[in-house]
Amino acid sequence: MVTLILGLALFLGTHSVRIFADDWRTAQRARHGEKMWKLGYTLISLIGFGLIIWGFGMAQRDALVLWNPPMAMRHISALLTLIAFILLAATYVPRNSIKASLHHPMVLGVSVWAFAHLLANGTLADLILFSSFLVWAILSYLAARNRDRVAGTRYPSGTMGGTLAAVGAGVAAWVLFAFWLHGLLIGVKPIP
């Protein structure tokens, strides 16, 4: 469990600098240069991500079961992860109404993904992993919206084509992941 927690601290810690120390981040980027900042950020994030994977795998071997979610939670979780994939796609597809109205769909997608996994899983490792990401995503979204408000950021309005492309890309990615990649990479088939 220690490895999982260390990985979360490194990964989410690097991703929280802008939430808690945006001025320090700006100063460090100016001091060390954009490339060095991104290199260090990426390196620490990758180490943290690797430790999360390794630590979660170890924690699941001797999993402490806190509760056994009802089977219906798997279906609800599948629907919620579909929404999360659409939000993730909306981050990258230009001129879509989802991003135009929500402004930061990626962190909202992470929060929906984490919440969905909390509903469908009941071990201590699941609780630590997914609740950490859920709390981080909520704080990140609130901080980003506050930065937008202070800066007077305006997002371009979405188009029907951009919105349909975002939804289509999200659904396609979800189908690929839910029916094939999740079982291959994670070892659990959410939709048999």
UniProtKB/TrEMBL annotation:
The chain crosses the membrane at residues 40-59, 71-90, 102-120, 127-144, 164-188. Keywords: Membrane, Transmembrane, Transmembrane helix. InterPro entries: NnrU_dom (IPR009915). Residues 4-190 form the NnrU domain. It is found in: Membrane. It holds the Pfam family NnrU. It comes from the Bacteria. One of its GO terms (cellular component) is membrane. The keyword GTP-binding does not apply. The keyword Manganese does not apply. It comes from Noviherbaspirillum sedimenti. This is Protein NrnU. It is a multi-pass membrane protein.
